[in-house]
Amino acid sequence: MTEVLSLEDVELTYPNGKVGLEKLNLTAKKGELIAVIGPSGSGKTTLLRAVAGFLNPSEGSIAINGEVMYRRGQSTIPTEKRKLGMVFQQHAIWPHMSVAQNVSYPLRLAGVAKPQRAKRVGEILELVGLDGFGERDPATLSGGQRQRVALARALVNSPRLLLLDEALSALDEPLRDTLRLELRSLASTLGLTMLHVTHDRNEAIALADRMLVLDKGEVMQLGTPTELLNNPANPFIAGFLSDATLIRGGVKDGLFQSVEHDLRYAVAGEPDGDGTLVILPNDIAIDESGADSKEVTIVSSLFGRDHNEVVLDWGGVRMRSRYSGVMHREGDTVSARIAQARFYPAEDYSAPST
Amino acid sequence: MKHKSKIVVGIVAGALTLTACGGGAEPSGDGPGGSITLYTSEPQEKIDEIISAFNEHYPDIGVEVFRAGTGDLTARVETEITAEGSPQADVFLAADVPTFEGYVERDLFLQYTPEDVEALLPEVVDEDGYYVGTRVIPTVIAYNTNSIDAPPASWDELTDPQYLDQLVMPNPDVSGAAAFNAAVWLDHEDLGVEWLTDLAENNPVIADSNGPVAQSVASGAQPVGIVVDYLVRDFAEAGSPIAVSYPAEGVPYVSQPVGIFANTEEEELSQLFVDFLVSAEGQELAVGQAYLPVRDDVGTPEGAPAMEEIELLNPDLEHIASIREDSVATFNELFN
Amino acid sequence: MNSSTNTASRGRGLLRKWQAPSGPVLKRLTASGVPYVRFGVWCSVAALIIVPLTAVVALAISGNRWDTLWTAEIFNAGVNSLVSAGLSAVFAVVIGTVLALLLDRTNLPGRGILRIFLLSPLLVPPFVGAIAWLGLFGPGGQINHFWSQVFGSPLWNMYGGAGVVFLLTVHSYPLAYLIVGAALRRVPGDLEQAAQISGANPWRAVTKITMPLVRPAQISAFTLIAVQNLADFGIPAIIGTPGGYQTLATMIYRYIQSGTVSEPLQVVSTIGALLLLLAIIGVLLEYRASGRSMGLDGPAAPQQTLNLSTWKHVVGFMSWIVGLAITVLPLLALAVQSFLSAPGQPLRWENLTLNSMTRALTANTTIVGAYNSIFLAASAALICGVIGGLVSVLLTRTLSRTNVPLRIVVMLPQAVPGLILAVGWLLIGPSLGLFNTIWLILCAYVMGFIALVVQTVNAPLRSIPVALEEAARISGAGGLRTLITISWRMAMPAIFTGMMLVLLTSVRELTISVLLLAPGSQTLGVAIFNLQQAGDYNAASALSLIVVVLGLFGLSLTIKTKTRS
Tens digit of pLDDT for each residue in A254-307? Predict the structure, then answer.
């Protein structure tokens, strides 16, 4: 199977010395949707713009369908010749053109004859649910409709790779949800390869075949959503994706001792040394009494459709927990138990930057 | 003095405490005091000098100057008569007798004969005593000494094709002297409309007033110009390559008469100013400003010929006054 | 959707600015006391704007001199005015657009400093520019002098129509650049990026996507400049008239100053009414042409810098040469004329003197002119600040049916050539007892420049949420109190900026003050103009040079205090 996108050791430093990307490797297979996620300033947009050709890396190489787009010392293929599609956060619909003119623009530049162009624009508008909107002025469209126009424009010339830059972030929640579903179904219908940059964790988890988590230009973890959720590669991933509680401390003789709090936890089999104890919210069981359970106070409590979210005061440590069952109020005392915790030795430690 | 603007200037000048200029002089207590408004076509710099010399004698008389070309001044006077019923100035010091004759006919002037009138050239004193000339200003041929080796010696020579596109002269719509000249030329038996037509063939540049004409000749933009003589001496003294030629046919001249408007509220102060202009001191100042004087006891400016060496054209001024308007129209027709 | 939908170009059209504010409006402020303020504002606006314009139109109609419009003289002047204003506005917009692209979008070397140079004609009063350029391309100008000596004939005598168009262009392209450049910066970068992704190269993306989006700004720049140049007096008077090129402005001046026509006021009012009609038609046309508003929402994504690549140095070199030639060269010529002891002398060390400088500075007329200009500018700034500030507060912070007419009336003088404003005051001056006084000039300044304050204040004030006043009301302040302690106070910084604009504009004004000139009321501009007209080019240049230098100095001070605050 061919790799649609392949990035090798891509490094990018801005003229002001700020590091945009560091030693980044990524491949995307045909039909794969890769979600790129990370806190602001993590380099996710930088990555997308480097693939688009708006930015050039300082090192490494970028190839699409095996064709080199960028390699240091070689002539760079400019954006307009990369045959990509892109949807921008603010849709970027040209206000001086009608919907059809917007959508047909890439075809016009590609030299497609007028009759074919009209036919293709009709098809693609139908595909995005805007059948009959061709002659409309973009100013008369709703936000969701404009984003569909932008999507149609990005898809019309069958791009090799579709880039989505926070494409759904500007939309309201129910609409965003609908478009997410449509995007996913489009991806499988058209066999589209997509690179989807977002700051929305749930969106990334919901959409992605694989997720790439970046922080300060570095890859934190690359894998399927399940892998990242269940086996975070480091405390950062756990904190960023799952709001896990991170406790700094050290292990001695199989027992973790927090630096700042009076908290111990048995971590059998871990070698001695400093590190971080990570407790995922799902791993704190509420209302379960047992030998290792503890009476804790609820500091704040949110009701949810599937599970409630509470913050507990665990002997001075604030911990996030997700549980199903009876909802507790602030100030209630409940018995809670840490079902599972992971210890990450110090070299892996990295605090989320937000 | 009835201008509200005076108050403003007074306030501003007072606020900024600068008293060097004439208008804001400190009252000294003795001597006549008040202020008069003067409409004049004298160059700004020259009239400023005259007023500061006047103020040495009469520090308490403020002289408010409005300077413009004679044409502009007469237009202003007309507007003021329409709007306010009478001219808004006290003293009128501008280019030519016909304008003054017209005002005399309309009873706009007071009669006044200056103190030592016997010392003045009789030609410049109005017989009826309404106005008196203050300088003799002949219009001459000026040439750039860098560009012209053999200067034209007569008006007639200016029609020679060699001066095509080389000439510059003032606009009679703006310059009173130029309007007067047009009438005198057209009235002259050897020149007349034929000569003026030939002159127009040489396509002269028509500058707005005498100043730009002299400037243009001095800078060499147009090597030959028809212009009042004192400006040529001014520029030559400053170092410009410019010289004057007095044409053989004779030169028309204006006397820059001064008169007092009948509606003045400061008759005495105005008379003092007129007296000063033609006094020996006032005339010495005029000579120092490169003018030919109206009395023969003060010499002539440096570089100027003696008065008797200059052939002055002395036409019948009443006749000139009567053909003036038509002459300007003829001129405009020929030159536009 | 983002609530702050900004239109493709602010300042897109004179008329568009008159439309009701899109922002929040305080409804309850209409109560208690505010009607008195509104009444007072309407009274002053009626006296300062409606009365003089009505006087012009009334005399034009009653004077019945429409026949004069068809005399060859006026017809030619009218054609000259339209052609010179139209051509110079087209050239200015073309140059301004090229500059906006070159300076703001490309990697042109040294574009930061070049921008300052290229904006400098904005600071030089047009008539001073005319005097300066005459020093180069006048019949006796330095370049023509040199050219004559080497090649036997002058390079270009700028007297006449071509010179007028050239100079009007030089003095208006910076404004075009500012307007078009501002619109260019507001076009979100992702629109171009979307075009590039679609297969357009960067230059094509600029020309096909961004350029159409700045077209409304180009049209409004054209209208603004054309109206301004239609009324300009200094340039055609100094450059045009000696070459026999009359415009309506110089014609009106000649009629009024020299009375070369019978019933000058009637004739001039007729011309004025015609110009008024032209201005209104122009504004309406522009309103239609600037078309539907193109909503560009959201924060503008940063724009890509266009790479001039191999052309970088060639284009850079050319831009610098042209930029320096049209900005520094005339000032050098001005300096040469100021220091040369007499015209026609060769430029040598021993011929340089400070005489003209001293003469210009110590002349009575200069001193009176400077006093008058400063007095007029300061008073006009103060009055415009108060009235304009109140108008802005009423327009943006209150709701009233009279707001739209108020906006139209206040902005109208900006679309009308300054000459007509002056003629209006000339007409009503005698009945007000202000004939032949400096107050007439002040009235005309206030009339002409209130719009500057209103424009400056409206935009920032409109973006302040109405909740600030609502909070004052909740806290117990009455309508008038809220208007004064909250709305007016919030507007103060912008009002101050607007007042500075009025000050800088009126201190070097010529067109209005030359027509309303009275004994003892000449302004600095008139003093310079008269020196030039009287043929004392050296003194005129010296005074011009001083004005330019002081202007630059004053502006740098303003910028300094602004950045400090």
Answer: 888 888 888 888 887 888 888 889 999 988 888 877 777 888 899 998 888 888
Element (H, E) at C105: helix C72-105
Q: How many CB atoms lie within 10 A of CB B31?
A: 12
- Burial per residue of C304-322, b for 16 or more beta-carbon CB atoms within 10 angstroms, e otherwise: bebebeeeeeeebeebbee
Give pLDDT tens digits for B177-203: 898 999 999 999 889 999 999 999 998
| Distance spanning both ends of chain A, measured CA to CA | 38
Burial grade of C53 (CB within 10 A; 0-12, 13-18, 19 or more): buried
Phi first, then psi: what are they for A8, rounded to 5°?
-120, 120
User: What is the DSSP secondary structure assignment for residue B49, as one 8-state letter?
Assistant: H
Asked if C364 and B68 come within 8 Å (Cβ–Cβ), the reply is: no
Residue B94 phi/psi, 5° resolution? -150, -170
Residues recorded for chain C: 565
| Complex confidence, ipTM | 0.78
- The average pLDDT across B251-267 equals 92
Whose structure tokens read 């019978």? C262
Alpha helices in C398-417 (DSSP H): 403-415
Quick check: B216 and C140 CB within 8 A? yes
Buried b (16+ CB within 10 A) or exposed e, C78-115: bebbeebbbbbbbbbbbbbbebbbbbbbbebbebeebb
For residue C121, give every residue at least 6 positions away whose Cβ sits within 8 Å of its Cβ, in sequence order, or none. C129, C170, C171, C173, C174, C326, C327
Residue environment code for C392-422, b if the CB has 16+ CB neighbours within 10 A, otherwise e:
bbbbbbbebeebeebbebbbbbbbbbbbbbb
* DSSP category for residue B207: E
**B38 band by pLDDT with thresholds 50, 70 and 90:** very high
Pairing mode, strands A294-302 and A264-266: unpaired
Q: Do chains A and B touch (3 or more CB pairs under 8 A)?
A: no
Give the N- to C-terminal CA distance of chain B in Å, as an integer.
41
Cβ neighbours of residue C43 closer than 8 Å, sequence gap 6 or more: none
**Which letter does DSSP use for residue C352 in this model?**
B
Query: What is the spatial distance between Cα C340 and Cα B219, in angstroms, rounded to a whole number?
Result: 11
Q: At what angle do helices C489-506 and C438-462 cross, to 10 degrees?
A: 140
- Give the residue on C whose Cα is nearest the Cα of B211: C535
The rounded distance, in Å, linking the Cα atoms of B136 and B273 is 19
Residue type, C417: P
Cβ contact B224:B167 at 8 Å: yes
Q: Which of B1, B2, B9 to mutate to test the interface with C (most CBs of C within 10 A)?
A: B9
Chain A residues whose CB is inside 8 A of the C294 CB are: 95-96, 139
- Across the interface, of B5, B209, B220, the residue whose CB is closest to C520 is B5
d(CA C222, CA C175): 10
Considering the entire predicted model, what is its pTM?
A: 0.81
Average pLDDT over residues C515-529: 87
pLDDT at A266: 84
